[in-house]
């Protein structure tokens, strides 16, 4: 399927990009079907560490914002391609659950509402470029998008796991509070049709949010995995590697197994795996890179199993390299998924076919996909 948005130069470019990516990934798509949850009947998992009772916001202030917040070349190209977009952006100022001042951006499509809304988190570097690109594409499909700005996880400087996980927790809590605010205060938002999406760290936060907030009716997670302790023990991300070395030296940890055990005690309370049983697999779409070593394929498979084997697409990419060429294809898959679960209210059980496992990912990486 070609990208839906096909206007002038932008339409030609994005359609070609989407169709090229579709060709490259044609062997990695799994057709959904109606069936039983392979996990059987599961009890709901409570989330006391992420409980936000009584935290509905009344002090949110809104002001007009430029459509382009980041100054990245990708966004300049995007603006050139699309010329004029039919949406507006608001800057929302509020008090974080941590007590600090915080900011979010709400993108509203033109036209009569209320609009279904998608909550988006930024990536680990705290750059807003990718989340802004995602927001603009979803707005072009008629979705309002709430883009959160998170507290940096401080992997560059910290030597303890409590600091980044506290920031992770506040990021999820802030999103829950902002969802409550939108439902109570925004007549242009359809509070019954809320989705969540993210890339990399944004996908981890999004996965946790969906697992703890029953108002989330659909999720699309790009470059995602579960098992935060294992991810931090194995990731090749340079900032996480440096954090890992400092932590192991400070705690006198000598091997991976001991490191995982040390991290698990703190990460479990916010880990997407912990709350995956609360998520209906038919409401999830996962898109990952076959040779990803920053969020390893093993961790993607862990989350896929915990989610009940949802729809999972695999790109011939690593975590960063080669992903850009699949961007419009990814956005189109996300729009299709949200159209199905949010707009149409359909919940079809996905195929139980599992994509190639970590052994295959290692073979691909060894062949030179760098």
Keywords for this structure?
single chain; 370 residues; alpha/beta
Note down, in words, how this protein is organized:
By secondary structure, this protein is α/β, with parallel strands linked by helices. 40% of the residues lie in helices and 17% in strands. The protein has helices at 8-24, 73-82, 129-140, 162-185, 201-212, 228-234, 238-251, 256-267, 272-275, 297-306, 327-343, 358-366, and strands at 61-65, 87-95, 101-109, 115-121, 144-148, 189-199, 216-222, 284-289, 311-315. The chain has a 9-stranded mixed sheet, with helices on both faces. β6, α5 (201-212) and β7 (216-222) form a beta-alpha-beta unit. The protein is globular and about 60 Å long. The relative contact order is 0.15.
Topology:
Elements: H1 8-24, E1 61-65, H2 73-82, E2 87-95, E3 101-109, E4 115-121, H3 129-140, E5 144-148, H4 162-185, E6 189-199, H5 201-212, E7 216-222, H6 228-234, H7 238-251, H8 256-267, H9 272-275, E8 284-289, H10 297-306, E9 311-315, H11 327-343, H12 358-366
Parallel strand pairs: 4-5, 4-6, 6-7, 7-8, 8-9
Antiparallel strand pairs: 1-2, 2-3, 3-5
Helix pairs in contact: 1-2, 1-11, 4-5, 6-8
């Amino acid at each position: 399927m070609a990208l839906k948005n096909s206007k002038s130069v932008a339409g030609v470019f994005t359609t070609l990009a989407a169709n090229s990516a579709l060709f490259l990934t044609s062997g990695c798509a799994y057709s959904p079907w109606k069936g039983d949850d392979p996990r059987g009947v599961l009890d709901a998992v409570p989330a006391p560490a992420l409980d936000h009772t009584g935290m509905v916001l009344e002090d949110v202030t809104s002001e007009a914002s430029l459509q382009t917040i980041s100054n990245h070349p990708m966004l300049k190209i995007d603006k050139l391609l699309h010329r004029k977009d039919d949406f507006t952006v608001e800057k929302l100022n509020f008090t974080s659950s941590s007590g600090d001042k915080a900011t979010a951006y709400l993108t509203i499509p033109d036209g009569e509402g209320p609009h279904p809304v998608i909550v988006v988190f930024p990536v680990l570097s705290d750059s807003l470029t990718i989340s802004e690109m995602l927001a603009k594409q979803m707005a072009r499909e008629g979705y309002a998008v709430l883009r959160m700005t998170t507290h940096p996880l401080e992997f560059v400087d910290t030597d303890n796991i409590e600091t980044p996980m506290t920031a992770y927790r506040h990021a999820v809590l802030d999103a829950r509070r902002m969802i409550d605010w939108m439902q109570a205060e925004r007549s242009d938002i359809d509070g019954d049709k809320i989705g969540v999406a993210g890339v990399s760290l944004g996908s981890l936060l999004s996965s946790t949010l969906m697992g703890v907030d029953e108002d989330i009716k659909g999720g699309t997670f790009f470059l995602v995995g579960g098992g935060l302790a294992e991810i931090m023990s194995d990731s090749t991300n340079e900032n996480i590697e440096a954090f890992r070395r400092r932590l192991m030296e400070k705690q006198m940890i000598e091997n991976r197994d001991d490191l995982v055990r040390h991290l698990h005690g703190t990460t479990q309370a916010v880990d997407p795996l912990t709350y995956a049983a609360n998520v209906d697999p038919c409401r999830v779409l996962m898109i990952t890179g076959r040779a990803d070593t920053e969020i390893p394929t093993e961790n993607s498979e862990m989350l896929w199993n915990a989610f009940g084997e949802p729809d999972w697409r695999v790109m011939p990419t690593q975590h960063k390299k080669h992903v850009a060429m699949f961007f419009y294809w990814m956005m189109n898959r996300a729009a299709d998924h949200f159209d199905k679960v949010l707009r149409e209210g359909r919940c079809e059980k996905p195929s139980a076919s599992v994509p190639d496992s970590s052994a295959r990912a290692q073979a691909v990486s060894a062949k030179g996909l760098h």
